[in-house]
Amino acid sequence: MPEFELIERIQARADTRSDVVLGIGDDAAVLQVPAGKQLVVAMDTLNADVHFPAGTAAQDIGWKALAVNLSDLAAMAAQPAWCTLSLSLPQADLAWLDAFLDGFLALAAHHGVALVGGDTTRGPLSVCVTVHGLVDAGQALRRDGATPGDDLWVSGTLGDAAAALAQWREGVGIDVALKARLDRPVPRVSLALALAGVAHSCIDVSDGLLADAGHLCARSGVGAEIALAGLPASDALRVLFDEEARRVLQATGGDDYELCFSAPVQARAMIERAAASSDTSVTRIGRIVAGKGVRALLDDGTQWRPSHSGYVHF
Amino acid sequence: MPEFELIERIQARADTRSDVVLGIGDDAAVLQVPAGKQLVVAMDTLNADVHFPAGTAAQDIGWKALAVNLSDLAAMAAQPAWCTLSLSLPQADLAWLDAFLDGFLALAAHHGVALVGGDTTRGPLSVCVTVHGLVDAGQALRRDGATPGDDLWVSGTLGDAAAALAQWREGVGIDVALKARLDRPVPRVSLALALAGVAHSCIDVSDGLLADAGHLCARSGVGAEIALAGLPASDALRVLFDEEARRVLQATGGDDYELCFSAPVQARAMIERAAASSDTSVTRIGRIVAGKGVRALLDDGTQWRPSHSGYVHF
């Protein structure tokens, strides 16, 4: 029965941790949450031809499926701990599975995450991951804490993943630096952990900056102003796209998995230190204001209105 | 953006619990595991045309997606607490979602389970659920505790779901009682909770009795003998299928979601009381022996060898 071969293959390669009482191989995993900690849980699915081109390398699919979930934990400033994986495959392909695990488990090992369960089944290629993280009680970084007067920050650079996807759709060669951002997003876990207790609110940028900043503002009951000229861009994006194309990619492109967070003005030096200590760049891109909605401002102070503000899921 | 309409629809209908610090609506949920408890996590996906006929009513898909996961928690004797749901849909169909939630949330409410997160996305119809339960530290009921001399037990009746599927494949009308077993499996949660500290080992019967008893034996390093004539059958199965067909369905049919468990002979009276108190029938079907493998015995004591022992996933 090949399912068991697949599971055994996964089990043989999965690392464990001392807080895993029972991992892969029973009806469920048993885990020990330390006293004083709260559990943080996120779940995200990647479907072939929706979240990645069907031809994407198995290693990259594995990496990305875990990365997008770890990015959600990062947005809560949670320390990653465990994950489960539900893998739907058109056929039981052990070589594909091995390559998938190369990517998935490399990122898991980097963050000390134990793969503790899940299932494998037949179906159109789809990868569903649930991640579990830990925070000190009451210390999760939420979307609803933004306060008028806060600075609005973003980590890394914006628009690279969407730029790679645009090149792929046009059938031109994809720039390698941009492709790496699309296929191997880096969850900003260490930056996030350093922001706990400093930032007021946080969200990860998966649907596009304006859309996700909008979610943060809606949950906080505030508005935001963002200066488009100040959005951080990679060298590749600057070289390969003109100003207007870049603006669309940076402000509305999805799949960046950067953190967008607000923090009081007094915290600027602490945030710069958090960025330095986690080797992650951060940029102040605007501020939180009273009211509602996100205003994206051009250099002349007028509001820019994109045709859409972010990734449309359906 | 219809995804947010879907999420809002789910959020508006999802119940919460006092141990949910933060539910649907942020990057991740935040949950409080009580002191002294361990966390039990299971994850299972149902794909259209693999785990259910594509024409299955949305209510039933919702029910079953949660039920198969709660069955895994039951097999560990864990008290269900929270779940997350990742729903892939070909299109954003609010009427379908409402019907799906009718089934899903009815079962969740029955077991006091809060839906705390997940995602909705475009893709072939697929439902992935992660469930979280709680056990007293060290008290999870595992597959690896079976001991030679133990009785082997099973809850409820076997083969009904597979019988319904057989009728569906043959294109004959499906008996309503059998169809209910296929579409609305009942996770044996209350029986399982009563078995904690009494049974030595447990597994849920999802792939077929012989296959799943085999997994339990393999993990425990023991063998088992099962008397086929003693397997519990529903009235519908008895009326509609002859003895040989029944035997195949009961011993190898999947999707029953009954519990197969081992317990010492001395515990028989306690198990009968656990069954009575949880209003769930139980049947002694055999015993655990030294050695390995499961021997399915005919009335004359000879071994029956089916063409396959359970559901083949690929």
TrEMBL record, chains A, B:
Positions bound to Mg(2+) 5: 207
Chain sites annotated for binding Mg(2+) 2: 44, 72
Binding site for ATP: 118-119, 143, 206
Binding site for substrate: 51, 255, 311
UniProt cross-references to InterPro entries, sorted A to Z: PurM-like_C_dom, PurM-like_C_sf, PurM-like_N, PurM-like_N_sf, ThiL-like
PurM-like N-terminal domain segment(s): 25-135
Residues holding Mg(2+) 4: 27, 72
Pfam families in alphabetical order: AIRS (PF00586), AIRS_C (PF02769)
HAMAP family: TMP_kinase
Name of the protein described by the UniProt record: Thiamine-monophosphate kinase
Organism of provenance: Luteimonas cucumeris
